[in-house]
Write a structure and sequence with these properties.
Layout lengths: L8 E6 L2 E6 L2 E8 L3 H10 L11 H4 L4 H9 L6 E5 H4 L12 H15 L13 H5 L4 H9 L4 H7 L6 E4 L4 E5 L17 H29 L4 H9 L1
Antiparallel strand pairs: 1-2, 2-3, 3-4, 5-6
Helix pairs in contact: 3-9
Length: 236
């Protein structure tokens, strides 16, 4: 996930956010790719509920199975991703992309296709790095993406194979998968109706699959490491 770089420290700064430092520079922030708060707020708002965080809300409203399945994996390793610190907050729930990870991947995919002189997909021209991450952060984003050199390498290094289509012609990776049908054509919209089921089901499956790819690599990296010392470092 960090080509040619080794983090100097890793610290847990909240229940689901990590700060990853390189040689004294707070450069990366690890957070969830698929937010439960964004999706559940949209789900309940469509049904007339607007007080998702009131104590006892979940106990009073029985959640559908595809939502509970998502909630069990949302804070697992398959849903965490390290982004340059400046890029994480701008793509949040108040951004144009509404914090949906498939749109972030589409913008990154479009960037690589453009830089590799491949055919740009004009129907998705609105979904750019600037649109997802903000005008002020485009340079930071491009610098980060240049460290991976290509879309194929970006996918492989970040274990994102299950979030994208295969390109059978080239043997590499193609366009990202939509979290629900029609999302790429209606990029600023929240899901509705049956699209909620698609979102929660797809996100859960892809998170689990990515976690299964990451776990063996983590196990290999932790062999012969001082786990107690690592835990102390993360706790600060």
């Amino acid at each position: 996930m960090f080509p040619n770089r080794t983090p100097s420290s890793l610290k847990l700064i909240s229940d689901n956010v990590y700060r990853i430092t390189f040689a004294g520079e707070n450069y990366y922030r690890g957070d969830t790719m698929n937010s439960w708060l964004t999706a559940l707020n949209a789900f309940f708002n469509k049904r007339g509920y607007q007080y998702l965080l009131i104590p006892g809300f979940f106990e009073a409203h029985l959640l559908l199975e595809y939502i509970t399945n998502f909630m069990t994996v949302v804070y697992t390793i398959g849903n965490f991703f390290p982004l340059p610190k400046a890029l994480n907050i701008p793509r949040g729930s108040r951004a144009k992309s509404k914090d949906y990870w498939d749109l972030a991947l589409l913008a990154i995919y479009q960037h690589y296709k453009k830089t590799e002189d491949e055919a740009y997909e004009p129907e998705f021209k609105k979904c750019t790095l600037e649109w997802v991450f903000g005008t002020k952060n485009e340079e930071t984003c491009i610098k980060w993406l240049c460290s991976f050199n290509s879309w194929n390498y970006f996918v492989e290094q970040n274990f994102l194979q299950d979030f994208v289509h295969e390109d059978k012609e080239s043997g590499g990776y193609g366009r990202p998968k939509e979290l629900w049908t029609g999302h790429f054509e209606n990029q600023g919209n929240m899901p509705s109706g049956a699209q909620f089921s698609e979102f929660f089901t797809n996100a859960s499956a892809w998170i689990l699959a990515r976690g299964a790819r990451i776990a063996p690599e983590v196990k290999k990296q932790l062999e012969n490491k001082d786990l107690y010392g690592l835990a102390r470092q993360m706790a600060g």
